[in-house]
Amino acid sequence: MSDTSSILPEHPPVTDWVHDFDHTDPVWTENPFPIWEELRNECPVVHTKRFLGCYLPTTYQAVKEIAYDTEHFSSRRVIVRDVRPPITNTAPPITSDPPEHKPAKQFLLPPFTPDAMKKLEPRVRAICNELIDEFIADGKCDAAARYTKNIPVRAIAHMLGIPEKDSDLFIKWIHEILELGIKDDAALMRAVHEMTGYFAGHIEARKKNPTDDLISTMMNAKDKDGQPLSDMHVLGSLRLLLIAGIDTTWSAIGASLWHLAKTPADRDRLIAEPELMPTAIEEFLRAYSPVTMAREVIGETTISGCPVKPGNMVLLSFPAANRDPAMFPDADKVIIDRKENRHAAFGLGIHRCVGSNLARMEMTVAIEEWLKRIPDFKLDPSGSVTWSEGTVRGPRQLPVLFKGK
Amino acid sequence: MAGKLKIRVDQDKCQGHARCKSLAPELFNLDEFGNAHEIGDGSVPAGLEDKAWLAQTNCPEIAIEVTEE
């Protein structure tokens, strides 16, 4: 008789979401919204023993309380995983707590203001059209593999001043860190190591020949005492920009296109009324928020009346908060002209996503250019849409059919 | 009768989401770090009242105060 334990999945399928949730379960990956609704109706904060202990807030109020409470909730760990090894590779400011957080974030803000993004916009528009040129004659494509995946990675490469052609390498690292890394520590460490080596080379090159790009800007930044940042700090922030700036926006663009592929009325309305684009983008961000962050509990407290104990992690689900009907009327409906939309897709409090203006610009440009060239498209019934596993949610396969122009 | 509106961005709360600047560029400016500030003394010119309320109701940090004078 064979050893049955070897064929058991590492994570048993979830049968009791309220007491044993698992954000890597295939049911969650496919459609997490009914799960969040069930949990929200049960309790604002639920707990699982998986991942060495983890809480999940599902109401807007509970998510907000945790995001604002940096005394009891640390950002030193921002991915919920099976293991909790000693912290060796930080990525400031996302992994920073006060008081280190503010100076670590401050120098990254000016390169990402809306005005700075306007300067990058023409390049992003060109990237979108270069990609569309490659498949438009085919009448069909996997919009995730051929379009959405490639836009953020090329844009951030352009900003950092590294070759856009290295994109595939970056995408591999992201996959190893954010998806495989939840359960495979070796894959994560290998990817972090490779990425660090790659950027260390770019830093060394700029010490000899300074350039006019974001890597040089970071190398020239000063800490709060007026001292240059260490190479370790710059490397950490570079890892952050690459990890945080790629599959997040890739997911947001993909989910938006997925929605438009199956909702002709919204597509036609956006084409007829392009002035709705800003509210549509905010609504896609709310309804299909890609990013769930994490915190580590470092002090006992209560959240929305629920006791929370140190030693546990927290899945800080901005996506679930954004579907809370107590905060958003018709929370499960996508309303592209929704007027009041205080969504938390980019976080709340001091850790507001530093790249939010970049993400918005990329989403806007990617959808505008797609609709200009491919106004009429639908999901390909002969293929299937698949969604990423883990804490960044978006379509990883998005087969669509369209009339080639 | 409704009086004139005045807006103020609470600098302790603003985190630079920039929603107000996008919705009401006539009423808000962003500084070099992307944080928002009311333009001038925050008086809302006639005709822009709706935009002031729109900015207020979309700020994720609830950092914008609108008062009637």
* Beginning-to-end CA distance, first to last residue of chain B: 11 Å
The oligomeric state of the chains shown is heterodimer
Question: What's the end-to-end separation of chain A, in Å?
Answer: 60 Å
At the first level of CATH, the class of chain A is Mainly Alpha
Biggest interface? A-B, 22 and 19 residues
Describe the structure.
The complex is a heterodimer of chains A (405) and B (69). Chain A is α+β, with helices and mostly antiparallel strands and 405 residues long. Chain A has one domain: Cytochrome p450 (Orthogonal Bundle). Chain A contains 17 helices and 12 strands. Chain A has helices at 4-7, 17-20, 26-30, 33-42, 60-68, 101-106, 114-135, 143-148, 150-160, 167-179, 185-208, 214-220, 231-262, 264-272, 277-287, 318-321, 356-373, and strands at 45-48, 54-57, 73-74, 140-142, 293-297, 301-303, 306-308, 313-316, 377-379, 386-387, 395-397, 399-402. In chain A, the strands form 4 sheets. Chain A has a 5-stranded mixed beta sheet with strand order 1-2-8-5-3. A 3-stranded antiparallel beta sheet of chain A has the order 4-12-9. In chain A, strand 1 and strand 2 (54-57) form a beta hairpin. With 69 residues, chain B is of the alpha+beta class. Chain B has 2 helices and 4 strands, in the order E-H-E-E-H-E. In chain B, strand 2 (28-30) and strand 3 (36-38) form a beta hairpin. Chain B is globular. The model of chain B has no long low-confidence stretch (mean pLDDT 96). The chains are: A alpha+beta (405), B alpha+beta (69). The interface between A and B is medium-sized, with 22 and 19 residues.
Task: Describe how the helices and strands are arranged.
The complex is a heterodimer of chains A (405) and B (69).
Chain A: H1 4-7, H2 17-20, H3 26-30, H4 33-42, E1 45-48, E2 54-57, H5 60-68, E3 73-74, H6 101-106, H7 114-135, E4 140-142, H8 143-148, H9 150-160, H10 167-179, H11 185-208, H12 214-220, H13 231-262, H14 264-272, H15 277-287, E5 293-297, E6 301-303, E7 306-308, E8 313-316, H16 318-321, H17 356-373, E9 377-379, E10 386-387, E11 395-397, E12 399-402
Parallel strand pairs in A: 2-8
Antiparallel strand pairs in A: 1-2, 3-5, 4-12, 5-8, 6-7, 9-12, 10-11
Chain B: E1 5-9, H1 19-23, E2 28-30, E3 36-38, H2 49-58, E4 64-68
Antiparallel strand pairs in B: 1-4, 2-3
